[in-house]
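Why does residue order matter? Because the sequence determines the fold. Keep that principle in mind as you read this record.
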Amino acid sequence: MPSLVPILTITGSDGAGVVGIQADIRTISALGGYALTAITSVTTHDENGATSINDIAPEMIIGQVRAVVKEWHPKVTKIGLVRDVTTIKMLKKEIVASQKIVLVPGIFSSDGSQIIPDVAVSAIKKHLVPMATLLILRCNEAEKMLAMKIKTDDDMIKAARAFVDMGAESVLLRASKHSEGLLTALLYENENCHFFTSHNTEGWQRHGVGGALSSAIATRLAFGDDITTALEKAHDYMHKQVVYAVKEIIQHSRKTVIYNKLMSLVAQYYNKSHDVNFYADKLCISTRYLSKVTNDVVGASPKQIISDYVMKEAKILLESTNFNIQEISNRLGFSSQSRFSSFFMKYEKCTPSDYRSS
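Structure:
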């Protein structure tokens, strides 16, 4: 039996590892959970580049789930891509005793193509939605399931209530575009509405972001967080996956582009380099000009920006994982644990150990 908290993910396989079972394993493991899996389908590509989804036989899927549940008793079960009606009906019986269920049907792919047939959508609505501790849907998927349009905040609330009336305990609706230049999300729980907005419309719609967010939420729920706290900590974790772009100001448009490229680079290389020269070289500009860019756009130096990002990641790892201080130091790109501790003390005025125990 692993010492880490077990989380079961039931979804399809993606050879590229950007979504599906591979991505779920990566997110759950990164947050300190123990990933258990049941694969529902396999994606293949032919010589012409066409993609097809090949569903695994229901008996084989249920066999995987049954074996894992019996042996490991997962704290949370996350259900992703399931495309077969028989599987959906059988799955309901296998997970009925699950402590918490995070349902993320993924009706549409990131390019807008429907990948779950209508008959399976109806089966999910009938058999799995009533079992969900948390139902996570993009707004276009909610529109499909409810046969309604979502064009306002009130429409989002109406849709969430409809799913709660079906039996879901709480609902997270994502990626509504009804406000120009913004993405809106709604967490509906115990008749309370929590709205979230972001200007980073591109980042939050990237392929794989929804899967990573839902896996992070499932992991935090397994650690004992309530749904609101789990969402907050999962959102913090997503700083590693989604770079928050600043709103473009016309007089600083070129600088804004450079700044956003810097943030993308920091997200990619923060665990390899904390040196301003490294990022200036990547951007093919001088450190002096990079300093002017960041100061004009956000009023901070490149060093501050890099350090803030590393600190944010350090806090996420300290709060959300079981990694020891040396492991966290290594993951953040420090040459030694003492250098990491000195860095952390400088910005937080306490040691990493004290921060974790506070």
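DSSP finds 15 helices and nine strands in the chain.
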